[in-house]
Amino acid sequence: MNSPILGPLVRRLAAEHPQAQITTYASWSADELAQQVGGGRLDYALIGVCGDAVPPAGYGLTWQEVALEPVQVLLPERHPLADRVEVRLADLRREQWAVAPGDGCFGDCFAAACARAGFTPRKMYEADVRGCVDLVDAGVAVGLCQATFRPVPGLVTRRLAGAPLRWRLLLGWHPDSVGADFADGVLEAAVAGYRDSLAAHPDYLAWLLHNPDFGVQ
Questions:
Q1: pTM of the predicted model as reported, rounded to 2 decimal places
Q2: I need a labelling partner for 161 at 20 to 30 A (CA). Which of 36, 80, 82, 129 fits?
Q3: Bridge-partner residues for 157, per DSSP?
């Protein structure tokens, strides 16, 4: 599930370039976004990829990392594990899962992490972010989300012990496009927007101080 970086990014770009016409386009497919940038229909793509997975290739794009996050679990406050600071993936082996769609390898990475923890994940419900939140809130499933996932009343995020799953936020552009001239500034705005999002997550911010391989590098 997504992190709240888009709003701060657009706000900063609008303030720095008041004459620019800023629009956004959403897709669950990172490959589609890369294709749109490669074809000149978009200036930039802001995507997420699993762990060390490579971003979409074949479109000639330049990719730069915004931040690296540990994937966390989203639980209802009444869940028996909600009072823990972190949760072992193996302790969730009896759960059903709510996941957002996408064309990357996250599903395979999740299944592999579960296998290393000694189990095969049970039923997985696919839904958009709002639907995933509703499923978790109803107690039907638990979810996986980024560490900067916007807080939701009645739900809590908890770290997975050992950070078995990681998520990289990347910004991409075509080096021969007009957007390439402004890419450094857009990347700086994306990084600043990510840092802005940390204010709502003091526990995660404190964790980053002891885990410098995560966050903004």
A1: 0.93
A2: 129
A3: 74
